[in-house]
Amino acid sequence: MSIVAGYIVPHPPIAVAEIGRGREREIQPTLDSFEKIAKDIARIRPDTIVLTSPHSILYRDYFHVSPGRAATGDFGGFGVSQVSITVSYDTEFSDAIDTICNQRSFPAGVLGEQDKTLDHGTLVPLYFIRKQYTDFSLVRIGLSGLPLQTHHAFGRILSEISEKLGRRTVFVASGDLAHCQKEDGPYGYRPEGPEYDKKLMNALESGDLEKLLTFDETLLDRSMECGHRSFCILAGALSDKLYQTKTYSHEATFGVGYGFASFHVEGAKKMNTHSTKDPYVELARNTIETYVKTKEIYEPPTRWDEMEQTRAGAFVSIHSHGMLRGCIGTFLPTQDTLTDEIIQNAISASTRDPRFAPISANELPFLDIHVDILSEPEPIDSENLLDAKRYGVIVAHGIKRGLLLPDLDGVDTPAQQIEICKQKAGIHPDETDLELFRFEVVRHV
């Protein structure tokens, strides 16, 4: 078995009757949706519930998985400490997360527990679920400050572990939507609040959870949402599955968005096994795998004429689970052929990038590799001749040189490109006596 269903739910403490003391009835659609989802989970009868909460232990660069056999929490922070919940943890599942992520150098595991008490992002969903169903173990997971793609990658790992363990698993992604939707709400009003909620609910209604990865970080920040990364982990957990989508209620009665959706798994997606392999990427991949495993330089069994008859600068970029894992390149050719240029830079990117430890053999199955082939740099006399999407840039001052590839996330203007190049080259920010070069890139993925 694996993940059989996933749910997106909010966690408003006021929905708990003992806290709301009647005011919970002002969000009756939210109460009704909680009841429907709790009954749905009871019908499924999962062995394990994996629950992600933005209010569990959070680190900037690490996903914390709650360790131990059990944990307890109460609503004392909301004036009703007599309402408490105790859960048993699925220790085999959490231990498997810790082991596999350690093997793959993925930043998740059971280290760093500061407070084992259940948080309200966990307690509120469990308050409603346990009214209908209690025969489950819990895996509680916090979020991180890492990119959305890394949260998505973590979800894929969780799905893999559930399948390996044979667990009948339900995934509950706890998270409120935007917090700034009313002037008289606790966080005031920003137009990005309703904008985020509308965009999020539209994505859920479409059933295309991959859209969650395209949300702009500025919108997420300005809307003051708290659940988007939780939802991205769920998206990753369901990324290889076919599922039936259903949205329930959405409201912002108290100025904070509460949205609900369910995703019932119907089977596995059929993978395309006929895709053409890019020879540039395959050369880099085979080089990396050979060198990491044997420390020997890869010798292609056949050499492709286009690479053998070309000399050019090349960059090899390696990502693992959505995060940069190594990138080394040359803006002018240093080898006799492009084949050898890629081989040398692939070895350097995987084992000699000073920002990272060398890649290990355990990481090899999870690498995404790009190869960028550079045109010959062309001198220009003005940044007006640059285009951040089309051209890469080289900034030089004396012997100092900084290079930036084109079309990078978060780099939208030539001025940004030049600023970053100055930083990389150690050129003073106020320096204006600069040489500028532009180049184009053919990207192979």
**Structural domain count:** 2
- Biggest sheet layout: 7 strands, antiparallel
Give me the CATH fold name of the largest domain: Protocatechuate 4,5-dioxygenase, Chain B
Corresponding CATH architecture of the largest domain: 3-Layer(aba) Sandwich
Radius of gyration: 25 Å
Separation of termini?
33 Å
- By CATH, the superfamily of the largest domain comes out as LigB-like
User: Percentage of helical residues?
Assistant: 25-40%
Just give the CATH class of the largest domain.
Alpha Beta
Contiguous uncertain segments of 5+ residues:
none
**Number of helical stretches of at least 4 residues:** 12
Shape: globular
Structural class: alpha+beta
Order of helices and strands: EHHEEEEHEHEHEHHHEEHHEEHEEEEHE
Q: How many beta strands in the DSSP annotation?
A: 17
Q: Work out the strand percent.
A: 25-35%
Mean pLDDT: 95
